[in-house]
Amino acid sequence: MNKEYNTVRTTSNEQSFLPINPFAEPTTTMSSTTNPNHPHIGDDDMIDIDFRNTTNEKLNSGVMNVDLVNTRYDDFQTIDWLKDLMRDRFRHRLLRAKTRQSFLNKILMYHDAWSGWLCVLLVGLSAGVIAGVIDIGTNWISHLKHGICLNAFWLNREQCCWASRNLQYTNVNTEECTEWFTWPQVFGTYKTGAGQFLLSYIMYIFWSTIFASFAVLLVKVFAPYACGSGIPEIKTILGGFIIRGYLGKWTLLIKSIGMMCATSAGLILGKEGPFVHIACCCGNIFSYLFPKYGRNEAKKREILSAAAAAGVSVAFGAPIGGVLFSLEEISYYFPYKTLWRSFFCAMVGALVVRSINPYGNGHDIQFSIDYSVPWASFEMIPFILLGILGGLWGAFFIKTNIWWCRFRKNSRLGQYTILEVVGLALITASIIYLNPYTRMSMSELIKRLVSQCRVEDMIDLCDYPNSQFVTGKSKGSVGLAGPGVHRAIWQLFFALIVQVALVTFTIGVKVPSGLIIPSMSIGAITGRIIGIITEQLAIQNPSFILFRHDCSKEENCVTPALYAIVGACAFLGGVSKMTISLVVIMFELTGGLTYIVPLMAAAMTAKWIGDGFVRGGIYDAHIELNGYPFLDNKEEFNLTTTAEEVMRPRPEQRSALAFLTQSTMTFADVENLLKETTHTLYPVVVTREQPYVVGQVLRRDLQIVLKSQKMHRYRLSSTVIQFTTTSEATLNSDFESDNQPEQQLTANSEVIRVGNLLDQAPIIVTDQTPMETVIDLFRKLGLRQAFVTRNGRLRGIITKKDILRHIQQMSSHNSEATYFDN
């Protein structure tokens, strides 16, 4: 959007055909005797200061008009939702008014209308391509720890053995063929024994350490914001917070490469969560192709909400679940048109992933199941038990992980991020290689656990000597578990212990990491174990009251693989506290539409149990840990306080509120105020004796004006700065005549009018306004701050961080919480 489209300049001899836009793009117009060839001066590439339209008449009269409105936010600030949305409405009205002038302007109007759809289309395409490349690369790098396909090194183990005539499977269903060379075979050792195992063990640890070291070095050197899953920060950004560089191109590149290396290193983390961050990076980058979104932070968040939905869609092949995830868990401002654009963006991403086929199964989902057997009524008891265990697991993990992250943050361990990751990779690789179920990737493990046994399966989990398995809607015939099943249960139990212990210390290290797949893996292991136990109880006790009506001697009534699906849903729900979106993601992820009711029961139980111990999910806990100013619009507050008890300065405090007067402050007074305080904006009152609020001014605008004036004028200390326009000064002449000191100051001094800096529509509440009302104002209007008055006189100010600090104090009586300035 061009600057001339947003600022309508008028002189004293002409009338404006449109109302002056108080939320225009940054423009400064100065009337002074300056060199016409003087270059434009900028402040950090934020504004252009225009020294044209110089008139000697205004200079001789001692009055200078400065027009500037700043629309760019500093780092770690909160956006002004109201002003940004009003600015977009004005831009839209101006664009519609110009359509009557020419056909080209009408084309521009149509382009503006469909630019949002084009932007989300590009985001969906790019997110799908990046997701496909990451999935393929991760599979290849992960298998590199075990060996290499010498005839075609670019193939992973599964692809290498596709055309093999000597294909065999291990007891955990891992492919083995003559075309795939393990590292002992590469070094010439073909005999099985202690030497081969030791060499494989050493190479596994070596490659794991290399991949983890590469990932942490990339993050530390090139993009520190590429660590973690990014979902807490994305949630905060969509809430209106500015984090410069978090959605940049370097973060996108390093996170894409780093998550492949970190996942392939065998660390107990996943790559699916960071896809939300990657998709939002794409949304941020493509939004700058369309000034409607790139230059308006509030409108940009509509694109980011759609990108978050696409991130979940490409991660799991769940477009509907992605839209619901963005709506339920991530987005703060989600208008109706964003819902359709999110759906379109998620659909495009899922189609691209399906076309690339990174999973090699012909589907766009990872854990597709080929059974739809009905579940019995008595199975609701173990399903609810899994929900209870998932809620307990979520509470345990949130408390322990936050404790460890806080310890890392406040101790010397946080200074040695590279050593921490390398040491963790060494310990993890040394432990998980000894167990075949932890040796494989967690995605492969989940795929094994949610799959039903078939007649050709010769793995431990399907060791039922007296059973004949069939596919389709029929269940396997009755049979007792063999020694392979017992061995698999113990191995899965130890895998469960290892993953629970390691994931607590892994989530939060300085590598790209997600929590979704580890939680699902832990839940799938627990569910499969409980499923096998329930199956054997039903087989050995067919006349028990619970099994009497649903089980018979001819057919098994329990499907252990179903319990793995329900367990994955319950444990992920216990950690994230998601409900509706989680259930939809799970049935899209597996294709098990028949099992919605068990999934719903497990997810709701996990949330109820988890809420009894910990308020909010893991993402909310990390937002609070990092001190981000995020005000949840779904949370309810029952406070009995008033605005007077939260505002700054409080009545019992001796500090004075920093403010500006409308017409009585000199250049030196304003400059000293900016030096002594660090506030992002200042209220403007009539006079010190009559502190009636007339508006507010941003600190950044004042700094730009002072800097530009000092570079082109001299002897400014006694110059008066008036926050009025020429017309306002005329209308207020009667008031000035009653104020003799002010009139004398204006008459004997040069005046700089900065009326267009003044925002004359601040949000004001009285000091007796209940805090519940104030919080609703901040949440529903997206406010940055509100002024507090009594009988119209300014008494204080309330910002978002004041509200968050007050909520923290009321809930935990902890006043040490630190929030970023907004």
TrEMBL record:
One of its GO terms (cellular component) is endosome membrane. Its main location: membrane. The keyword tRNA-binding does not apply. The chain crosses the membrane at residues 114-134, 201-226, 247-269, 275-291, 303-327, 378-398, 418-438, 489-509, 515-539, 560-587, 593-610. Keywords: CBS domain, Chloride, Ion transport, Membrane, Transmembrane, Transmembrane helix, Transport. Residues 758-816 form the CBS domain. The keyword Transport applies. It is a multi-pass membrane protein. One of its GO terms (molecular function) is voltage-gated chloride channel activity. It is found in: Endosome membrane; Membrane. PROSITE patterns: CBS (PS51371). Belongs to the chloride channel (TC 2.A.49) family. This is Chloride channel protein.
